[in-house]
Amino acid sequence: QQQVKQSPQSLIVQKGGISIINCAYENTAFDYFPWYQQFPGKGPALLIAIRPDVSEKKEGRFTISFNKSAKQFSLHIMDSQPGDSATYFCAARGNTGTASKLTFGTGTRLQVTL
Amino acid sequence: DTEVTQTPKHLVMGMTNKKSLKCEQHMGHRAMYWYKQKAKKPPELMFVYSYEKLSINESVPSRFSPECPNSSLLNLHLHALQPEDSALYLCASSRSAGGQGGNEQFFGPGTRLTVL
Predict the structure, then answer these.
(1) Residue B45 to residue A41, Cβ atoms within 8 A
(2) How many beta-carbon pairs under 8 angstroms link A with B?
(3) Which end of chain A is more exposed for a tag (fewer CB within 10 A), N or C?
């Protein structure tokens, strides 16, 4: 029940195209859903995040769509650029009472080609 | 300053060595985390410190020993590690560990550990 399923495992998009990564969860107690971007050899960087009372959040070229009833959320990268080539992790936060824990999806390797 | 720093960047150690990883943040965050990340896998939570007290230990083997000397520093002491412990060790911090809001976790660049 703590799992977050992420798809696809890898994605190739042409420059200027839209990249879409999907995640699904089971635990309705999750209360916060961040996306992280990770370049090789670096730590994950927080990209954008959403709470379950909001259906969409946009920051620049990055948009999260959230469907609470379906327990799904997705990341859309508009006008994808070669510099966006990285691994993307969705995550979901659950509270244990004394501390919160992030459960990560399995990751999507995005490659943006010229 | 919105940065989490980690030292060293790379570490190679033998199975009988004792070494320590260090993490520092100056954002006034009161929660700090250690994660382990294997190649092509997501980060796995190891420990959570909240207000300098250990609040979560994800059943990590005792050869990993965390320490939080103050609210800005987090150490991970390593002893008698195995080759399968080779991984990227990530530190993260957040404003608080529990409750609602303000809990975005910010990650450091990691320490690449190789155990021979």
Answers:
(1) no
(2) 63
(3) C
- Contact (Cβ atoms closer than 8 angstroms) between residue B111 and residue B46: no
Adjacent-strand bridge partners of A19: A77
- Residue A75's Cβ-side half-sphere holds a number of Cα atoms within 13 Å equal to 33
pLDDT tens per residue across span A1-57: 568 999 999 999 999 999 999 999 998 888 899 999 999 989 999 999 999 899 999
Interface contact A96-B45, CB threshold 8 A: no
d(CA B77, CA B46): 13
Q: Which tokens belong to A57?
A: 């959040």
Strands A100-104 and A108-113: unpaired
Confidence of residue A95 (pLDDT cuts 50, 70, 90): confident
Residue B63, both tokens = 């050869």
Helix, coil or strand: residue A56 = strand
Residue type, B1: D
| Residues of A with Cβ-Cβ distance to B41 under 8 angstroms | 106-107
Q: What is the pLDDT of residues A59-87, one digit of tens each?
A: 999 999 999 999 999 999 999 999 999 99
User: What is the C-alpha to C-alpha distance for residues B32 and B43, in angstroms, rounded to an integer?
Assistant: 15
Contact (CB<8Å) B98/A99: yes
CA B36 to chain centre: 8
How far is B104 from B93, CA to CA, in rounded Å? 8
